[in-house]
Automatic annotation (TrEMBL), chain A:
Name under which the protein is recorded: ABC transporter ATP-binding protein
Domain of life: Bacteria
Organism: Actinoplanes flavus
Record keyword tRNA-binding present: no
SMART domains linked: AAA
Automatic annotation (TrEMBL), chain B:
Homology family: Belongs to the binding-protein-dependent transport system permease family.
Lineage: Bacteria, Bacillati, Actinomycetota, Actinomycetes, Micromonosporales
Domain (ABC transmembrane type-1) ranges: 95-298
Transmembrane segments: 12-29, 99-122, 134-155, 175-193, 229-250, 275-301
Xref: PANTHER family: DIPEPTIDE TRANSPORT SYSTEM PERMEASE PROTEIN DPPB-RELATED (PTHR43163), DIPEPTIDE-TRANSPORT INTEGRAL MEMBRANE PROTEIN ABC TRANSPORTER DPPB-RELATED (PTHR43163:SF7)
UniProt key word Glycoprotein: no
Pfam families (UniProt xref): BPD_transp_1 (PF00528), BPD_transp_1_N (PF19300)
Name of the protein in its database record: ABC transporter permease
Protein topology in the membrane: Multi-pass membrane protein
Length: 343, 308
């Protein structure tokens, strides 16, 4: 059996006292024939063990690209990480040779994708796809690996795991398939789990079950969870902290309750106002006017300024607003955060 | 899986009757005076005419004749060729040679097409990819009537790497050059389909998952991508196998291989009706069996078909 702990301890710069995961000033761009799309423009956040960080934002704000950069599965070309650091326990993953980087994947940092039907290989049984992890990373025998696969399906509460292990992805329902995905991500006991819109493709009732399961498994294992979503309802229930992303930047970061009570960035505020609420039934819903900027042509200054009702001249000029510390443990990239907070 | 096989077998029987019916109807419609054709130049006497009409049921209607033809076909009695030889005997001589040739050709083509196609797909847009594109275009542009004699001239006559013609036994070594020539006719399409399929599958979400699992690129390609990519390629290879068995006429003529195409070509030239119909009927059966095998293989590769 491959000793994974020894392999991990040999990572250069490993420091068990360092933060579990720290992303610093990450820049990712896609070089396409139509120009350079700047998908991530200086994203920074951190994650501690047992904590849930929600990354919130509209489609195209760079949240999935950030996740793929952390995993090291960015399609390249066209994707390129141009600046920044991704540190796992002090180890700069971006400087790691590919062979070691591959060991970090699934062993220490794992990921769940949105659409489990397309994310699972249609021509192999779920048992094969789960057992593969143990065979490749742990050098287990075929039968040992298969038994572990059954255990995993049990852990994610799939009924009849012993027989279902031989089924193919298309034979599972949407919710059960997402459980298989979760089992696959948790197979090698990672410390960080990145869930990219894990419930978006599911029914509302199934969504709640999956989120409940994720929360339970996270508690048992004291895992750090990065939950990528555009659904503020999901976030409120499970997240500890929220990072709101817009045009490839974290525009606001705050503990979950603070942000719902008093948003510090106009974009967060607009997002909250666009949630339908029962007590405002019958009234016109507030929507954010305009569209997110094209990533090939991000506005000068604050990227949100063309859609912002607080925007004034300084917002339209470079440099973009810095991350103001607006309260303990809170930052917002808005020159006029005081107005937004309503002080 | 069992239900799938039964359903496919039933479909096959239906196709068999349909296809042989068409073949027979074409022959029936094309019949001018089969007795005169059989007798040749001199005038057929009335007694001979009566005897032959009796033997071949020529005075019966179309459906009755079809019935006799089917009965013969199913009991392995295909009648006699105009040369006087038993057609079933001729088939027994010709088929093994052709099957060997076609299998060898398909094996060569598939092995080269799949490996090259996968590498071209991985390095899409690179030098290797564009190089193979050029090669396949060249092969596609070269008709077999040019390629077969050319290969014979260069590799057999000049370089003497292979024998120029085959003997009656047609050993695999003798069949190698004709098989390579035959392979070139199908290799281009197989390669392009493999390449496109690989390119498509590399973009699939499950590939991203496989990479997120920390698998080495080699494993991602040859375990995860390949099996998915092969699904359309297998169908094509099966169709090609059928085509090669029936369509090796030019190659078998050039290399003097005593196979099905060789006999068929001679039968058509000498207007040997019973021979042509007999050979074509068996071709239909072979084609159906190959297609069934392909469909079963297809189901083995893609579970979604198996459980439909």
């Amino acid at each position: 059996m491959t000793d994974i702990k020894a392999t991990m301890d040999a990572l250069p710069g490993l420091d068990h006292r360092a933060p579990l995961l720290q992303i610093d000033d990450l820049h990712v761009e896609f070089r396409t024939r139509d120009g350079v799309a700047k998908a991530v423009n200086g994203a920074s956040f951190w994650l501690s063990p047992g904590e849930t960080l929600a990354i919130l934002g509209e489609s195209g704000c760079g949240k999935s690209v950030t996740a793929q950069a952390i995993m090291g599965i960015l399609e390249s070309p066209p994707g390129h990480i141009t600046a920044g650091e991704i540190r796992y326990r002090g180890v700069d993953l971006l400087k790691l040779p590919e062979v070691q980087r591959r060991k970090v994947r699934a062993n220490r940092i794992a990921m769940i994708f949105q659409d489990a039907l397309s994310a699972l290989n249609p021509v192999y049984t779920v048992g094969f796809q789960l057992a593969e992890l143990f065979r490749v990373h742990r050098g287990m025998s075929r039968s040992d690996a298969r038994n572990r696969a059954v255990d995993l399906l049990d852990q994610v509460k799939i009924p009849g795991a012993r027989s279902r292990v031989n089924d193919y992805p298309h034979q599972f329902s949407g919710g059960m398939r997402q459980r298989v995905m979760i089992a696959m991500a948790l197979a090698l006991d990672p410390e960080v789990l990145i869930a990219d819109e894990p419930t978006t493709a599911l029914d509302v009732t199934v969504q709640a079950q999956i989120m409940g399961l994720l929360a339970e498994l996270q508690r048992q294992r004291n895992m750090g969870l990065i939950l990528i979503t555009h659904d503020m309802g999901v976030v409120a229930d499970v997240a500890d902290r929220i990072s709101v992303m817009y045009a490839g930047r974290v525009v606001e970061e705050a503990p979950v309750h603070d942000i719902y009570a008093r948003p510090g960035h106009p974009y967060t505020r607009a997002l909250l106002e666009s949630i339908p609420r029962l007590d405002l039934k019958g009234r016109q819903l507030n929507v954010i006017r305009g569209l997110p900027p094209a990533l090939t042509d991000i506005p000068r200054g604050c990227a949100f300024n063309p859609r912002c009702r607080y925007a004034k001249d300084p917002c339209r000029q470079d440099p973009a607003p810095p991350a103001y510390a607006i309260a303990p443990h809170r930052t917002a990239r808005c020159h006029f955060f005081r107005e937004v907070l309503g002080e | 899986m069992f239900r799938y096989i039964v359903r496919r077998l039933l479909q096959m029987i239906l196709t068999f009757f349909g296809a042989t019916f068409v073949v027979f109807a074409l022959m029936f419609a094309n019949q001018d005076d089969p007795i005169q054709a059989l007798v040749g130049e001199k005038q057929a006497s009335d007694s001979l005419r009566a005897a032959l009409t009796e033997r071949y049921h020529l005075d019966e209607g179309f459906l009755t004749q079809y019935w006799y033809y089917m009965k013969g076909l199913l009991t392995g009695d295909l009648g006699k060729s105009l040369t006087g030889r038993d057609i079933s005997e001729m088939l027994a001589d010709a088929w093994p040679v052709t099957i060997r040739l076609a299998l060898l050709a398909v094996l060569i083509a598939a092995a080269i097409a799949v490996t090259t196609g996968v590498y071209a797909g991985i390095r899409r847009g690179g030098l290797f990819d564009n190089g193979t594109l050029l090669m396949t275009l060249l092969l596609l542009a070269m008709p077999i009537v040019v390629l077969a004699p050319l290969a014979q001239l260069v590799f057999a006559m000049e370089l003497r790497w292979f024998p120029a013609t085959t003997t009656k036994d047609a050993t695999p070594y003798e069949l190698l050059l004709p098989a390579i020539v035959l392979a070139t006719t199908v290799i281009a399409t197989q390669l392009r389909v493999t390449r496109t399929s690989v390119v498509e599958n590399l973009r699939a979400d499950y590939v991203r998952t496989a990479r997120a699992k920390g698998l080495a690129p080699r494993r991602v390609t040859w375990v995860h991508v390949l099996r998915n990519s092969l699904i359309p390629v297998i169908t094509l290879i099966g169709v090609d196998l059928g085509v090669l068995m029936s369509g090796a006429i030019v190659t078998e003529e050039v290399f003097n291989i005593p196979g099905v195409g060789f006999n068929l070509a001679r039968g058509i030239r000498t207007e040997d009706g019973p021979l042509v119909v007999g050979f074509v009927s068996v071709l239909v059966i072979i084609f159906l069996v190959v297609n069934l095998a392909v469909d079963l293989l297809y189901a083995a590769l893609d579970p979604r078909i198996r459980y439909e």
